[in-house]
Amino acid sequence: MKQLPLVGEKTVTEHITVGLLKIAMALRSQAWDGGTSRKLTPTQGHILTLLADRAGSPVRLGEVAEALAITAATASDAVKALERKKLVHKARSNADSRALVLSLTAAGRREARHSSAWNDVLQGGLVELAPEEQRVFLRGLSKVICSLQEQGAISIVRMCAGCRYFRPYVHGDSAKPHHCVFVDRPMDDGQLRLDCREFAAPETTGGASARRVFLAGPRAR
């Protein structure tokens, strides 16, 4: 059987990086294609999707910029454009009258459903993974994002790793090794969340150590 050439062969890490970049380009292309007919940029579409996901929770402009890893100026310009299109509404926060919070209008909610439709393309690929492959993929993706946060390369994500309620690898049961204090239940890798409404930033440096335990894996316990 003919062997693949080894000279100049990429490492597994490099292959994964190439794959992730291809997925990112495909998703951005889908976002542009889906938003063009409705005159939305990908950033505007992402904001609508974010506000739809956070429905019922007040979202400030700074949170939008942080969640999408864009500058405050870019977020502000995109929100102003969405206001002009009557898709987003600004109001004073009930908790702090000095702060402005964002919400979707009825038209914005309808538009958000269109804007999030490009997710179906990616999900169509992910359903080809077996359940165990999906769990492994989610754990790996969580660790990549967690590591990037540790390096300061991306902003804080409302994910399990880094939440004050998350306890990684505290159970001997390999099927459900983690624990969520908020719901007081064991968790498996398939229950890890990358955007959780109950996320709470750590009150102490314990959150940083929990992230490092999660990155290191069960052998670190």
Instruction: Count helical runs.
Output: 8
Report the order of strands and helices.
Answer: HHEHHEEHHHEEEH
Structural class: mainly alpha
- The whole-number mean of residue pLDDT values reads 83
Which strand order does the major sheet show? 1-3-2
Distance between the termini: 44 Å
- Biggest beta sheet summary: 3 strands, antiparallel
**Total strands:** 6
Radius of gyration: 20 Å
Measured by DSSP, the beta-strand proportion falls in 5-15%
Kindly state the percentage of residues in helix.
Answer: 40-55%
Describe this structure in words.
- It is a single chain.
- This protein is mainly alpha-helical.
- The protein has eight helices and six strands, in the order ααβααββαααβββα.
- It has helices at residues 12-36, 42-53, 61-68, 72-84, 106-115, 119-126, 131-150, 206-216, and strands spanning 59-60, 88-92, 100-104, 166-167, 178-180, 185-187.
- Strands 1-3-2 form a three-stranded antiparallel sheet. The protein has a three-stranded antiparallel sheet with strand order 4-5-6, with no helix packed on it.
- The longest helix has 25 residues, at 12-36.
- The radius of gyration is 20 Å and the shape is globular.
- The model has no long low-confidence stretch (mean pLDDT 83).
